[in-house]
Amino acid sequence: MSTAQQTTVIARTEGKLIARNKTVLFSATLFPLALTALYLIQDAEGPMAAAGLTSIMVAIFSSMTVYMTVTLTAVSRRQDLYLKRLRSGESSDVAIFAGITLPTALLCVAQMIVVVVVLAIIGFEVPSEPWWIVSAALGSIISCLAMGLGTASVTPNASAAQMTTVPYFLFVIGSVFATPFADSQLMDLTPGGAIVTFARMAFDVPTPGSALTAAAGLVIWTVIGIELARRFFRWEPRA
After folding, report:
1. 120 CB-contact burial (10 Å; exposed 0-12 / middle 13-18 / buried 19+)
2. 37, 74, 179, 222: which could join 143 in a potential S-S bond, CB 3.0 to 4.6 Å?
3. Which residues contact 153 (CB under 8 A, 6 or more apart)?
Protein backbone atom coordinates (compact mmCIF):
# COMPACT_ATOMS: atom_id res chain seq x y z
CA MET A 1 0.00 0.00 0.00
CA SER A 2 1.41 3.40 -1.01
CA THR A 3 1.91 6.30 1.42
CA ALA A 4 -1.02 8.13 -0.14
CA GLN A 5 -3.30 5.13 0.34
CA GLN A 6 -2.12 4.68 3.93
CA THR A 7 -2.78 8.35 4.60
CA THR A 8 -6.28 8.12 3.13
CA VAL A 9 -7.18 5.11 5.28
CA ILE A 10 -5.87 6.72 8.49
CA ALA A 11 -7.50 10.06 7.65
CA ARG A 12 -10.86 8.40 7.03
CA THR A 13 -10.67 6.64 10.39
CA GLU A 14 -9.57 9.83 12.14
CA GLY A 15 -12.43 11.76 10.58
CA LYS A 16 -14.91 9.26 12.00
CA LEU A 17 -13.31 9.48 15.45
CA ILE A 18 -13.51 13.29 15.41
CA ALA A 19 -17.15 13.16 14.33
CA ARG A 20 -17.95 10.87 17.28
CA ASN A 21 -16.13 13.05 19.83
CA LYS A 22 -18.63 15.74 20.78
CA THR A 23 -16.10 17.78 22.75
CA VAL A 24 -13.56 17.92 19.94
CA LEU A 25 -16.25 18.48 17.32
CA PHE A 26 -17.67 21.39 19.32
CA SER A 27 -14.30 23.05 19.94
CA ALA A 28 -13.19 22.49 16.36
CA THR A 29 -16.38 23.60 14.63
CA LEU A 30 -19.08 25.43 16.54
CA PHE A 31 -16.89 27.55 18.81
CA PRO A 32 -14.74 29.14 16.06
CA LEU A 33 -17.82 29.73 13.93
CA ALA A 34 -19.59 31.36 16.89
CA LEU A 35 -16.62 33.63 17.51
CA THR A 36 -16.54 34.62 13.87
CA ALA A 37 -20.27 35.43 13.98
CA LEU A 38 -19.56 37.95 16.73
CA TYR A 39 -17.13 39.80 14.48
CA LEU A 40 -19.49 39.68 11.53
CA ILE A 41 -22.10 41.71 13.38
CA GLN A 42 -19.63 44.49 14.08
CA ASP A 43 -20.52 47.71 12.28
CA ALA A 44 -17.23 48.24 10.41
CA GLU A 45 -16.73 49.09 6.76
CA GLY A 46 -13.84 49.75 4.39
CA PRO A 47 -10.68 47.89 3.34
CA MET A 48 -8.89 48.39 6.67
CA ALA A 49 -11.78 46.90 8.65
CA ALA A 50 -12.12 44.06 6.14
CA ALA A 51 -8.41 43.25 6.41
CA GLY A 52 -8.61 43.25 10.19
CA LEU A 53 -11.69 41.02 10.27
CA THR A 54 -10.14 38.61 7.77
CA SER A 55 -6.95 38.40 9.83
CA ILE A 56 -8.89 37.59 12.99
CA MET A 57 -10.98 34.90 11.30
CA VAL A 58 -7.97 33.17 9.73
CA ALA A 59 -6.15 33.26 13.06
CA ILE A 60 -9.13 31.88 14.99
CA PHE A 61 -9.80 29.07 12.55
CA SER A 62 -6.20 27.96 12.18
CA SER A 63 -5.25 28.23 15.85
CA MET A 64 -8.39 26.61 17.25
CA THR A 65 -9.61 24.22 14.57
CA VAL A 66 -6.13 23.10 13.52
CA TYR A 67 -3.55 23.80 16.22
CA MET A 68 -5.55 22.91 19.33
CA THR A 69 -7.33 19.95 17.73
CA VAL A 70 -4.15 18.44 16.26
CA THR A 71 -2.38 18.71 19.61
CA LEU A 72 -5.24 17.04 21.46
CA THR A 73 -5.69 14.42 18.77
CA ALA A 74 -2.01 13.41 18.67
CA VAL A 75 -1.78 13.20 22.45
CA SER A 76 -5.04 11.25 22.79
CA ARG A 77 -4.14 8.78 20.05
CA ARG A 78 -0.74 8.25 21.68
CA GLN A 79 -2.32 7.66 25.07
CA ASP A 80 -4.65 4.94 23.77
CA LEU A 81 -1.72 3.32 21.88
CA TYR A 82 -3.39 3.92 18.51
CA LEU A 83 -0.24 5.51 17.07
CA LYS A 84 1.90 2.65 18.33
CA ARG A 85 -0.37 0.11 16.64
CA LEU A 86 -0.24 2.05 13.39
CA ARG A 87 3.54 2.29 13.51
CA SER A 88 3.93 -1.42 14.27
CA GLY A 89 2.10 -2.15 11.02
CA GLU A 90 3.01 -1.12 7.51
CA SER A 91 2.13 2.58 7.87
CA SER A 92 5.03 5.01 7.51
CA ASP A 93 5.61 7.90 9.93
CA VAL A 94 4.69 10.37 7.18
CA ALA A 95 1.40 8.56 6.49
CA ILE A 96 0.54 8.48 10.20
CA PHE A 97 1.21 12.17 10.76
CA ALA A 98 -0.57 13.15 7.54
CA GLY A 99 -3.50 10.88 8.30
CA ILE A 100 -4.22 12.19 11.79
CA THR A 101 -3.86 15.85 10.77
CA LEU A 102 -5.56 15.88 7.36
CA PRO A 103 -9.17 15.80 8.65
CA THR A 104 -8.68 18.90 10.83
CA ALA A 105 -6.98 20.75 7.97
CA LEU A 106 -9.87 19.94 5.64
CA LEU A 107 -12.35 20.96 8.34
CA CYS A 108 -10.61 24.32 8.66
CA VAL A 109 -10.68 24.86 4.90
CA ALA A 110 -14.39 23.97 4.84
CA GLN A 111 -15.10 26.48 7.62
CA MET A 112 -13.32 29.24 5.75
CA ILE A 113 -15.19 28.46 2.55
CA VAL A 114 -18.53 28.63 4.39
CA VAL A 115 -17.63 32.01 5.89
CA VAL A 116 -16.47 33.36 2.52
CA VAL A 117 -19.78 32.34 0.96
CA VAL A 118 -21.73 33.99 3.78
CA LEU A 119 -19.67 37.17 3.48
CA ALA A 120 -20.24 37.26 -0.26
CA ILE A 121 -23.98 36.89 0.24
CA ILE A 122 -24.20 39.75 2.75
CA GLY A 123 -22.10 42.03 0.55
CA PHE A 124 -18.86 42.07 2.55
CA GLU A 125 -15.86 43.98 1.14
CA VAL A 126 -14.30 41.97 -1.72
CA PRO A 127 -10.48 41.73 -1.72
CA SER A 128 -8.78 43.12 -4.81
CA GLU A 129 -6.07 40.44 -4.64
CA PRO A 130 -7.71 37.38 -3.01
CA TRP A 131 -4.73 35.08 -3.57
CA TRP A 132 -3.01 36.72 -0.60
CA ILE A 133 -5.84 35.54 1.65
CA VAL A 134 -5.39 32.04 0.26
CA SER A 135 -1.67 32.33 1.04
CA ALA A 136 -2.44 33.47 4.60
CA ALA A 137 -4.92 30.64 5.15
CA LEU A 138 -2.75 27.86 3.75
CA GLY A 139 0.41 29.15 5.42
CA SER A 140 -1.32 29.49 8.78
CA ILE A 141 -2.92 26.04 8.52
CA ILE A 142 0.41 24.39 7.69
CA SER A 143 2.29 26.18 10.47
CA CYS A 144 -0.46 25.30 12.97
CA LEU A 145 -0.35 21.65 11.89
CA ALA A 146 3.39 21.58 12.52
CA MET A 147 3.14 23.45 15.83
CA GLY A 148 0.29 21.15 16.91
CA LEU A 149 2.51 18.10 16.47
CA GLY A 150 5.38 19.95 18.10
CA THR A 151 3.27 20.85 21.13
CA ALA A 152 1.96 17.28 21.34
CA SER A 153 5.58 16.16 21.57
CA VAL A 154 6.02 17.89 24.92
CA THR A 155 2.48 17.29 26.25
CA PRO A 156 2.22 14.31 28.62
CA ASN A 157 -1.54 13.67 28.39
CA ALA A 158 -4.82 14.96 27.01
CA SER A 159 -5.64 16.93 30.15
CA ALA A 160 -2.32 18.76 29.98
CA ALA A 161 -3.05 19.74 26.37
CA GLN A 162 -5.54 22.29 27.68
CA MET A 163 -2.59 24.12 29.24
CA THR A 164 0.26 23.47 26.80
CA THR A 165 -1.71 24.87 23.84
CA VAL A 166 -2.48 28.18 25.57
CA PRO A 167 0.89 29.97 25.01
CA TYR A 168 1.02 29.51 21.23
CA PHE A 169 -2.71 30.17 20.85
CA LEU A 170 -2.35 33.47 22.71
CA PHE A 171 0.76 34.25 20.70
CA VAL A 172 -1.09 33.84 17.40
CA ILE A 173 -4.15 35.85 18.45
CA GLY A 174 -2.11 38.41 20.36
CA SER A 175 0.23 39.08 17.46
CA VAL A 176 -2.77 39.66 15.16
CA PHE A 177 -4.05 42.42 17.44
CA ALA A 178 -0.57 43.82 18.20
CA THR A 179 0.63 44.12 14.59
CA PRO A 180 -1.45 47.21 13.63
CA PHE A 181 -0.10 49.05 16.69
CA ALA A 182 3.51 47.93 16.31
CA ASP A 183 3.59 49.01 12.65
CA SER A 184 6.87 47.17 12.09
CA GLN A 185 8.01 44.69 9.46
CA LEU A 186 9.45 42.55 12.27
CA MET A 187 5.88 41.57 13.17
CA ASP A 188 5.83 39.55 9.95
CA LEU A 189 7.99 37.03 11.79
CA THR A 190 5.12 36.30 14.18
CA PRO A 191 2.34 33.95 13.03
CA GLY A 192 -0.36 36.58 13.54
CA GLY A 193 1.67 39.38 12.01
CA ALA A 194 2.19 37.35 8.84
CA ILE A 195 -1.55 36.82 8.55
CA VAL A 196 -2.21 40.55 8.96
CA THR A 197 0.30 41.45 6.25
CA PHE A 198 -1.23 39.02 3.75
CA ALA A 199 -4.74 40.26 4.58
CA ARG A 200 -3.71 43.89 4.12
CA MET A 201 -2.14 43.07 0.77
CA ALA A 202 -5.34 41.31 -0.29
CA PHE A 203 -7.41 44.43 0.40
CA ASP A 204 -4.73 46.81 -0.90
CA VAL A 205 -4.13 48.39 2.51
CA PRO A 206 -0.68 49.93 3.17
CA THR A 207 1.52 47.67 5.31
CA PRO A 208 5.11 47.89 6.59
CA GLY A 209 5.49 44.18 5.90
CA SER A 210 5.96 42.27 2.68
CA ALA A 211 4.92 38.96 1.17
CA LEU A 212 8.49 37.67 1.48
CA THR A 213 8.90 38.38 5.19
CA ALA A 214 5.34 37.20 5.97
CA ALA A 215 5.99 33.91 4.17
CA ALA A 216 9.32 33.62 5.98
CA GLY A 217 7.57 34.11 9.31
CA LEU A 218 5.11 31.27 8.68
CA VAL A 219 7.91 29.04 7.40
CA ILE A 220 9.92 29.70 10.57
CA TRP A 221 7.08 28.53 12.82
CA THR A 222 6.46 25.53 10.60
CA VAL A 223 10.11 24.52 10.89
CA ILE A 224 10.04 25.03 14.67
CA GLY A 225 7.03 22.72 14.97
CA ILE A 226 8.58 20.08 12.72
CA GLU A 227 11.86 20.22 14.63
CA LEU A 228 10.08 19.83 17.97
CA ALA A 229 8.20 16.81 16.64
CA ARG A 230 11.34 15.31 15.13
CA ARG A 231 13.32 15.64 18.35
CA PHE A 232 10.76 14.96 21.05
CA PHE A 233 7.73 13.12 19.65
CA ARG A 234 7.13 9.76 21.33
CA TRP A 235 4.92 7.01 19.96
CA GLU A 236 4.09 5.61 23.39
CA PRO A 237 2.45 7.41 26.33
CA ARG A 238 4.79 9.86 28.05
CA ALA A 239 5.51 9.41 31.73
Report:
1. exposed
2. 222
3. 228, 229, 231, 232, 233, 234
